[in-house]
Design brief:
- It is a single chain.
- It is built from nine helices and five strands, in the order H-E-E-H-H-H-E-H-H-E-H-H-E-H.
- The protein is an alpha/beta fold and 198 residues long.
- The protein has one domain: SGNH hydrolase (Rossmann fold).
- A five-stranded parallel beta sheet has the order 1-5-4-2-3, sandwiched between helices.
- The N terminus is likely disordered.
Length: 198
């Protein structure tokens, strides 16, 4: 983390944010957004697939997350962040509730973001809370347990479709996670495997 404004080192460029946002929005498009109360971990897919989504009518979309959800690193977070971009791809009249808090980890987000998420009565929830846990050396077993508890609560208290963002594999020159590319891929693969098992 940088001492100047608590933004992780390497997370300052709009290019990196755009790449991660495209990955996440594209991933949500990959499951075509049917409201089935399922939980989906996803891989990237082309964002235009959202145009063919099967959702009819407006939805309430809740984004649980950290700095990426909050729009850190883009010129106008309320317009250019991946959460509002995804919101524009959903049916007209959709209500977007962005609960993203820069720097937050999964355990803390489960405490502060879950109540407001449930109160919003969402049809769609995205959860992208993983990078700060890795950067903060949270043990993978603890992360899995926290994610499982969060999902159990959301599934029992909402009827929302839930999409979980995983660790993206950024370009080799990005310095993402502060690791060389081969180690970064190994860490991402390990965490992504754990996320997909939940």
């Amino acid at each position: 983390m940088s001492a100047s404004n608590d933004v992780p080192d390497g997370a300052r460029t709009g290019t990196r944010r755009s790449l991660l946002a495209t990955t996440f929005v594209g991933g949500i498009a990959s499951f075509a957004l049917p409201a089935t109360s399922a939980c989906t971990a996803f891989a990237p897919a082309p964002a235009p697939a959202l145009v063919d989504a099967k959702i009819k009518g407006p939805v309430t979309y809740v984004a649980m997350g950290a700095s990426d959800a909050a729009g850190v690193g883009v010129e106008q977070p309320s317009r250019d962040g991946w959460v509002p971009v995804l919101g524009t791809m959903l049916p007209p009249g959709t209500r977007v509730v962005n609960l993203g808090i820069p720097g937050i980890r999964l355990r803390e987000a489960a405490i502060v973001e879950t109540g407001p998420a449930i109160e919003a009565k969402p049809n769609l929830i995205t959860i992208w809370l993983v990078v700060n846990d890795i950067l903060g050396s949270v043990p993978l077993a603890a992360y899995r347990s926290d994610l499982d508890a969060l999902l159990t609560r959301l599934k029992s208290e909402t009827s929302a479709e839930i999409a979980i963002g995983n660790v993206p594999d950024s370009p080799d020159n990005s310095g993402y996670l502060g690791l060389p590319a081969p180690q970064r891929r190994a860490v991402a693969n390990q965490w992504n495997a754990a996320i997909s098992e939940i």
